Amino acid sequence: MNEALSNLGNENRSFPPSKEFAAQANAKPDIYEMADKDYLAFWGRQASNLYWHRKWDQVLDWQSPFAKWFVGGKLNASYNAVDRHVLEGRGDRVAFLFEGEPGDSRQITYSQLLIEVKKCANALAQLGIRSGDRVAIYMPMIPEAAIAMLACARVGAAHSVVFGGFSADSLLARIQDADASLVITADGGFRKGGALALKAIVDEALKGKTHVKNVLVVRRTGQEVAFSDRDIWWHDLVDKQSSDHEAQAFDSEHPLFILYTSGTTAKPKGISHTTGGYLTQASFTHRVVFDLKPEKDIYWCTADVGWITGHSYVVYGPLINGATQVIYEGTPDTPHKGRIFEIIEKYGVTILYTAPTLIRTWMKWGDEHPNRFNLKSLRLLGSVGEPINPEAWIWYRKVIGSDNCPIVDTWWQTETGAIMISPLPGITATKPGSAMRALPGISVKVVDNEAREVGNGGGGYLVIDRPWPSMLRGIWGEPERYKQTYWSRFDGLYFAGDGAKLDNDGALWLLGRVDDVMNVSGHRISTTEVESALVSHASIAEAAVVGAKDEITGQAIVAFVILRGGVAADKDLEQSLKSHVTKEIGAIARPRQIMVVSELPKTRSGKIMRRLLRDVAENRAVGDATTLADPNVMKLISEGLKSEKRED
Ligand code: WTA
User: Fold this and answer.
1) In CATH, what is the architecture of 517-647?
2) In this structure, is the dihedral angle defined by the CA atoms of residues 32, 38, 40 and 45, taken in order, positive or negative?
3) Ligand 1 touching residue 223 (CB < 6 A)
4) What is the pLDDT of residue 249?
């Protein structure tokens, strides 16, 4: 486990909620007790906040590890997110306050959003998209990304959003795996002051074999794009559609989306989510964890729709709850390092949900940037994606939150669909760095190797011992892999892949991944995926990749490579390998550092001992190496690296 994180759990400062916050909070302390009494009835009550075209007959059908929630119920996700607000008289409320990176902005009310979603749904139907189809979405953070997702949901097609930072190869693999028949994209998006091409990457990806019939293209940057018969401009097709479209009701278990995430193998997993349970937990958690007051709050989650946080806490959760929210296209330092704070001031943002990596980046940039802007509108702060170190937590609270905003550190995963562990603002006294406890209706445990619960003060593996509404329903096309990955480590328990500890007061501390998954800037990347990208380079014979502690990104990718015979390690090699990984997977997987070695530490069964490489990558004394097949390997590696440094 990451050394930096071993300090977690020793922090005992506690921040109780203020009386004022508690008095107005959406969640009241008895919520835990109510949920404990009968958790199925509890989730049934939460589901009743959605609009159901037909009510369910049964809350849960659990054939471990396969769950069906709200069995027999029928609903439409897009109807719940949009139509309902307009029909109930909230059409003039702003849904999106869009801020483009170059400074352009758009406000979209719920009524306008409904028109756009209906037109887009009609366009999808015209392109032959039907219930049960899959649509790949590869977009910048612009309102059309959410419109496209909602239009898919409206017609019953599952969307598969692929983050705009992924390469053509990664996009192709995802299009192929889900067998998508349509891609929705944009010419490009504005990032870091320039126009980043997206359509060109789609064109590159579609040179591979797919069943994609059309590519629907939003004009965002105006940059030049190649156009073929397959391609259609959004403004030519969507804008001309009728704004009448009746949302059809789908089964509660109808597929809503697939979202790919890295596992411990080279092949990403298509995490499958369905409708009723997912929407129930996404909207419930959004209401209680962020204490949303839809008439008053200006909510901002900085995640991209390409990640699960963007699905649950930009699109479905907030829209179902009728929130007014900011979405921002660009990077936090464009055109200046105070951009996020400037936007908070401009719109009077009250709730901010972001990631520790950005918080630590702000700390590094200096307090003068937030201090230049009025952040007094903020009343609640959230964190997600990786453990937040106590220093960053305290800084977030003081400098961004003026010392009077509750902080919710929310633990969850692409697989869990919605928040599972988090303080409830107004109820929980929070400790900096701890996600505190499971939400009402959710049950998690920390267990040892034999699945025995550890007591307070103990550490082990985080497991979930009861089904939850927004749980993944499987891995797209791979039912066995679903069982194997999540349900085989401990009998009858969902194993999340995270280490955790309970402190003496029973508060939960997440300690990072215990498997071969790295967490870089809150994004999951598998070591094997990067290794296989490296060995696909002509110069590389073997590669081992580890996540090493990094002050800003949490972990950074460090690769150890063995060159093929006859290849010399010149100074261009490192650059060439880094570019190769970027091309194969995307910029998020670009290694920070690549070290050429002559051997890799392996056990007798051939498994790479990443722990030892991590010691090297983090400049520590190398730990116990007695299980190595060749005990001298680590010495060779360390000496090799030292002489390499001297040559530099
Ligand atoms: C990590 C993101 C500690 C964890 C929503 C998990 C966290 C993985 C936290 C899921 C947190 C997420 N504290 N660790 N508050 N939130 N993680 O699928 O290792 O992109 O397993 O979902 O991120 O990442 P994913």
Assistant:
1) 2-Layer Sandwich (3.30)
2) negative
3) no
4) 98
